[in-house]
Specification:
Elements: H1 2-18, H2 23-37, H3 41-51, H4 56-70, H5 78-91, H6 97-114, H7 116-120, H8 128-132, H9 138-149, E1 160-171, E2 176-179, E3 184-187, E4 190-191, H10 206-217, E5 221-225, E6 238-243, H11 250-256, E7 261-262, H12 270-285, H13 290-294, E8 304-307, E9 312-315, E10 329-332, H14 335-340, E11 344-345
Parallel strand pairs: 3-6, 9-11
Antiparallel strand pairs: 1-2, 1-5, 2-3, 4-7, 5-6, 8-9, 8-10
Length: about 350
């Protein structure tokens, strides 16, 4: 390269001697050639390659060279090699034709890839998954059902008492009746306002409750069903759920009509108590029977104190209420709250309005 530079400089000098006028022009040409003369041979070649335009023939040769360089990598990446061979075939370069013979070689690895794919999928491992599922834990839940079925559920389908049938002779009040065979039956789980007796005045809605019971049962044959653990109370009366000839429960009818209120007791059937409690909620909500009168009286706005053990409630100013243990006390803001909670009035400290 340096020799070429010396030759060019010598030629310019000789040209300047012959033509003194164009010396200035020759100097300008020399200055223009200096950047090219300062380049190294490698940089000069790169400059010429960048300046040269790319012809379609050169592009085809480059594609062929690229395809030929990727063909030996078929064993490493069969799918990529197959795509490369396909592209090379589209260019139709002669050196790529041997790659067509390599296509079957790439097909074998591709087939080998297809085989491991099902092996990699966890289909065979799906079988242990159902075994790992807590299927045995369902058994305790299914076994718990018979345990609940063993609990007696008295009600309209409860077992009958001994001598279950009898005809009603008379009714003492809204919750007690007498049969023609002189047996006295107390409707279990309910209580009705008390009638006047001696010097004691009758409670509000007591006569109406007795009248409803007489209308429903007078001269009718009734059936006595078990209502709980005990079949008789402290007074020797039969405790039962009484069914009318049409199969309706007399206990439920009296509570539904608002002629009696729910009277809970721990010896009674839980099912019977639940049915009566729900019926009382409906009667109170619709102000049926005695509820329309009772809840409009001043006593309905007083506060009351309940006993969790006995499920009875007292007026807050009752002396007996102060004997309730603090842990068993339940405070009610009014009379309706106490009845809605399923509590019944205590016999001591009566607050029920009386008839004139």
């Amino acid at each position: 390269m340096q020799q070429d530079t010396i030759v060019i400089v010598s030629a310019l000098r000789w040209f300047g001697r012959l033509y003194s006028a164009p010396r200035f022009f020759g100097l300008l040409c020399l200055l223009a050639l200096l950047p090219l003369l300062s380049l190294s041979p490698v940089a000069w070649a790169q400059t010429q390659q960048q300046a040269a335009p790319i012809t379609p023939a050169d592009a085809a040769l480059d594609t062929a060279d690229t395809a030929g360089s990727t063909i030996p990598n078929i064993a490493d990446s069969p799918r990529d090699a197959t795509a490369t061979v396909t592209n090379a075939t589209a260019v139709a370069v002669p050196p790529v034709e041997p790659a067509a013979a390599a296509v079957p070689v790439s097909a074998d690895p591709a087939a080998s890839d297809v085989v491991p794919a099902p092996q990699a999928s966890p289909a065979p491992q799906a079988a242990p998954a159902p075994q790992a599922a807590p299927a045995p834990q369902i058994a305790p839940t299914t076994q718990a059902v018979p345990s609940t079925q063993t609990i007696p559920s008295p009600g309209p389908d409860a077992p009958p008492l001994p001598q279950p049938l009898g005809f009603v002779a008379t009714c003492f009040d809204g919750d007690t009746l007498k049969l023609t065979d002189r047996r006295v039956v107390r409707l279990a789980g309910i209580d009705a306002p008390e009638l006047a007796k001696g010097d004691r005045k009758g409670q509000l809605f007591a006569r109406e409750a007795r009248g409803q019971l007489i209308t429903l049962t007078q001269g009718q044959q009734v059936k006595l069903l078990q209502a709980g653990v005990k079949h008789r109370d402290l007074y020797g009366r039969i405790l039962a759920e009484v069914l009318l000839p049409d199969g309706r429960s007399l206990n439920e009818i009296m509570v539904r009509n608002g002629a009696a209120y729910f009277y809970p007791h721990r010896d009674l059937s839980p099912q019977l108590q639940e049915r009566l409690r729900n019926l009382q909620h409906e009667a109170i909500a619709e102000r049926r029977g005695m509820w329309g009168f009772l809840l409009s009286q001043p006593v309905a706005k007083n506060t009351y104190l309940g006993n969790k053990e006995s499920l009875r409630f007292f007026p807050s100013d009752c002396a007996e209420a102060q004997k309730i243990r603090p842990r068993n006390r339940v405070y009610f803001g009014n009379l309706m709250d106490a009845f809605m909670a399923g509590y019944a009035p205590a016999r001591i400290c009566p607050f029920w309005p009386v008839t004139p």
